[in-house]
Amino acid sequence: MVLSGIDCYFRFSRSDASQPKAVSPYQRKTPNTLIHMVSKVTDGVKVTVLTEYQPDYSNPGQDHFVFTYKILIENHSEHTVKLLRRHWLIYDANGTVREVEGAGIVGLQPILEPGDVHDYVSGCNLRTDLGKMAGTYLMERVLDGRQFRVIIPAFSLVAPYRMN
User: Fold this and answer.
1) For residues 24 and 8, is the Cβ–Cβ distance under 8 A?
2) Strands 21-22 and 26-30, bridge-based pairing
3) What pLDDT sits at residue 162?
4) For the stretch 63-101, what's the b/e string if a residue is b when 16 or more beta carbons lie within 10 angstroms of its beta carbon?
5) Cβ proximity of 20 and 12 under 8 Å
6) ∠ CA(88), CA(92), CA(93), 5° rounding?
7) Class in CATH terms, 33-162
8) 3-state SS, residue 34
9) Which of 73, 103, 99, 102 lies closest to 88 in space, CA to CA?
10) DSSP letters of 38-99?
């Protein structure tokens, strides 16, 4: 799919608890960056992912490509939930698959009451300019201890010049 020449944008509205307003899943910020957005709802918990290539921290000549991703977790359920663990599968264009598991996210195990939103930013290094990530969060209902997995939708990690 060729996306060159697309001009659109993504806005966050932190003043209200509503979901982010997206005009399009793609945004070209500068000639060197491309933002991609995907979202998925599982058991009333919505996960939205925005990715961005980081040319200032990448070195293509050394097969070093840096991407950041911002995750927005929205609790649309009627239950207070706690994020316990994360599980990631990270793929690059060479066929390499890395698996990452651990407690919480960026050192936290956030608790989200109904209507709450939690966001964080993290990053990923690849040896290719094209890859993808997907995963799950293990969450728990605070009241009854019921655990469930929330899907983190698969998202692309793409250096913008690959889109032309």
Assistant:
1) yes
2) unpaired
3) 75
4) eebbbbbbbbbbbbbebebbbebbebebbbbeeeeeeee
5) yes
6) 155
7) mainly beta
8) strand
9) 99
10) EEEEETTEEEEEEEEE-GGG-BGGGTBEEEEEEEEEEE-SSS-EEEEEEEEEEEETTS-EEE
Span 23-44, pLDDT tens digits: 333 444 444 555 678 999 999 9
What is the reported pTM? 0.78
The label of the residue with tokens 């060479």 reads 94
Pairing of strands 81-92, 130-141: antiparallel
Q: Residue 156 in contact with residue 132, Cβ under 8 Å?
A: yes
CB-based contact 79:141 (threshold 8 Å): yes
Q: Which of 94, 96, 71, 92 is nearest to 83 (CA)?
A: 71
